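Cross-check.
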Amino acid sequence: CMGCTEEAVLERSSGLNTFEMEIKQSFPTVAPTVKSDKFDLVANGKKCPFRGGTRLFRTDFYQPHTRMECYEICYNTPDCHYFSLGEGDDLSDKEKGICMGCTEEAVLDRSSGLNTFEMEIKQSFPTVAPTVKSDKFDLVANGKKCPFRGGT
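Predicted model, tokenized:
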């Protein structure tokens, strides 16, 4: 007895017959499908791109992370909108649990075994001060300060 997928192209073989399953068992997905209010799955088999300047970080090989750990890294990274996580059974040991984050502008790359999630809850980071025009002060110089001694 041997099995194959419905996409298989059958080959000639004397003495063997092929049958189609009428009743099929449902198996769980590779990655747990537990819903989170902090992030949503947006793509299976895709990851934050290497090129294009939208990837913000990638963790080291052989240091696996959970979904929540990867979420936390993205949460603590300014401009992180998506995170990708190595969850596939077909990944090498060095790639399992690898985590990467990217910006909202990222165009995801195909990558078997990696899944990408969109951040639903993001941290607000302070902006460079001041960002608001004021009638009480004007910016006169960047990267400069008043003198320590003897200045006016």
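The chain has a mean pLDDT of 85. Helices lie at 67-75. Passed to J.P. for a second look.
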